[in-house]
């Protein structure tokens, strides 16, 4: 998935926009995890708060480098002139802009060095790939009733007459689990829906384009096959529509009153604590509803409907 590039970045027409699409799966995913986190995230974006984590910086830079590689390839395949930066130039340029806008310089510089190695390695590794590039960083979308979902596709290619949507993912270590957990991702399920509606029978499916950025100077690359779960794919429209309805309902209230999902599984993910944990847990004004105690030997039974 595309990663947010920090606020306050000067516009440079030679640099591609790889930021999130207007109403992407990231919104639905966050709202499904915790509506309060979704609301706090919206406010943080409006306030222009930066999120600087090594994996986000690394992913942003590699993603940008690959976007420029394929955008220049697209122009070359069409016989057109391309003013976009070369991949390494683009990553260096973004690093300078991010630091100038307040990004943490040592972090960006360290991840730039890793990203340059990874992107150069990627280009050499796939030097003979015969993909016809159709789109780079273009926004596509669908509606389910009033619920819209958009996605900025990293790359759309044609291989032997079929159309594939490619998503670049970076990781510090590629494992067999990547193909399993990305097959469960609404992002890839959404790509499948949008792909089928856009290209019909010509659509070949999503491609997971894994890039290992391990800091050892020897990046690794894989494109494992994804096996999406059919019932999850079938339920996608209902998932989007019902989640959108919950977002719309919550939007009537101040964010501090949106339902929270306090759990070690939601407040503390594999990337660490929720970005909003302080606001949510300490600074938010308490919204306390009256409760009636039902504890006692029959407490549990008393919560069940009368037989
Ligand atoms: S700390 Fe937990 S409950 Fe609060 S916003 Fe984050 S995920 Fe939701």
List keywords for this structure.
11 helices, five-stranded mixed β-sheet, alpha+beta, 307 residues, single chain, 7 strands, two-stranded antiparallel ribbon
Distance between the termini: 50 Å
Cofactors and ligands: iron/sulfur cluster
Structural category is alpha+beta
Q: Average pLDDT value?
A: 89
Strand content: 15-25%
How would a textbook summarize the main sheet? 5 strands, mixed
Largest sheet: spatial strand order: 1-2-3-4-5
Number of strands: 7
* H-E order: HHHHHEEEHHEEHHEEHH
Which percent bin holds the helix content?
A: 40-55%
Radius of gyration: 22 Å
Uncertain stretches: 1-5
Q: What would you say this structure looks like, in words?
A:
It is built from 11 helices and 7 strands. With 307 residues, it is an alpha+beta fold. The chain has a domain of 209 residues. The strands form 2 sheets. It has a 5-stranded mixed beta sheet with strand order 1-2-3-4-5. A two-stranded antiparallel ribbon has the order 6-7. A hairpin with a 7-residue loop joins strand 4 and strand 5. Helix 1 packs across helix 2, helix 3 crosses helix 4 and helix 3 packs across helix 5. Bound molecules: iron/sulfur cluster. The site of iron/sulfur cluster (SF4) has 14 residues, from helix 2 and helix 10. The site of iron/sulfur cluster has 14 residues, from helix 2 and helix 10.
SSE arrangement:
Blueprint: H1 25-33, H2 35-47, H3 54-78, H4 87-100, H5 105-125, E1 132-144, E2 147-159, E3 162-171, H6 177-183, H7 186-199, E4 203-212, E5 220-222, H8 230-234, H9 236-250, E6 268-269, E7 272-273, H10 277-283, H11 299-302
Bound molecules: iron/sulfur cluster.
């Amino acid at each position: 998935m595309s990663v947010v590039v920090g606020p306050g970045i000067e516009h440079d027409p030679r640099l591609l926009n790889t930021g999130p699409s207007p109403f992407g799966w990231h919104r639905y995913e966050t709202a499904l995890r915790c509506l309060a986190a979704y609301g706090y995230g919206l406010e943080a974006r409006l306030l222009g708060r930066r999120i600087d984590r090594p994996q986000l910086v690394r992913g942003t830079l590699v993603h940008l480098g690959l976007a420029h590689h394929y955008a220049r390839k697209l122009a070359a395949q069409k016989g057109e002139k391309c003013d976009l930066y070369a991949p390494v130039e683009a990553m260096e340029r973004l690093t300078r802009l991010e630091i100038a806008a307040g990004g943490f310089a040592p972090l960006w510089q360290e991840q730039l060095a890793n990203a340059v190695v990874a992107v150069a390695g990627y280009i050499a590794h796939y030097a003979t790939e015969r993909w016809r590039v159709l789109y780079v960083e273009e926004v596509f979308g669908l509606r389910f009733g009033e619920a819209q979902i958009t996605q900025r596709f990293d790359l759309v290619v044609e291989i032997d007459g079929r159309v594939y949507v490619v998503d670049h993912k970076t990781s510090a270590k590629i494992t067999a689990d990547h193909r399993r957990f990305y097959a469960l991702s609404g992002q890839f399920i959404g790509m499948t829906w949008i792909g089928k509606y856009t290209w019909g029978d010509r659509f070949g499916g999503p491609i997971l384009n894994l890039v290992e950025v391990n800091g050892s100077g020897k990046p690794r690359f894989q494109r494992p096959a994804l096996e999406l779960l059919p019932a999850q794919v079938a339920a996608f429209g209902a998932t989007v529509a019902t989640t959108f309805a919950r977002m719309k309902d919550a939007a009537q209230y101040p964010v501090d009153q949106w339902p929270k999902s306090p759990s070690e599984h939601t407040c503390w993910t594999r990337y660490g604590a929720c970005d909003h944990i302080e606001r949510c847990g300490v600074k938010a004004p308490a919204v306390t509803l009256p409760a009636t105690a039902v504890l006692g030997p029959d407490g549990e039974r008393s919560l069940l409907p009368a037989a």
